[in-house]
Design goal:
The protein is mostly beta strands. The chain has one helix and nine strands. Strand 1 and strand 2 form a beta hairpin. The chain is extended, with a radius of gyration of 21 Å.
Amino acid sequence: MSLDKITNPLHIRHWLGDMEADYIYTLGIAGEHFFKEIKENGRIMGAKCPRCNVVIVPPRMYCEKCFAKLEEWVDVGTKGTIHTFTVATIDVDGKKLKEPVIFALVKFERGCGGLIHKIGETKTKEVKIGMNVEAVFKPSFERKASINDIKYFKPTE
């Protein structure tokens, strides 16, 4: 076996063309519970750490601070605060949007972390960091257990 450094990439085993990679993406235990709550109950849930007492949104199976297993679910409510935001003027294909779209990181009072989502019912010049917002859900019969079951977040008084 040679330990020489390969300097010519053509000497490496490789395939030309496309290589199919079949996989099934799953949400995992925490993700499935999180999206089921949104779909069935219109609730945004976090997972509470028994050691740190932090509530992680979106929930995970283990605390990112102390690695404790997270088994307690907490309703963090539907209201949050814009932590940061951006305004998109082009789509994913680089084409100009008819109307700009506001995306924000929404943090919840009882949670660590937050959700990145659209902001609606406001103009781009009115949105600001620290603005209070509330989730607007699709009607229950349209929900499919995805983040898009939340149509957007709208400003609150």
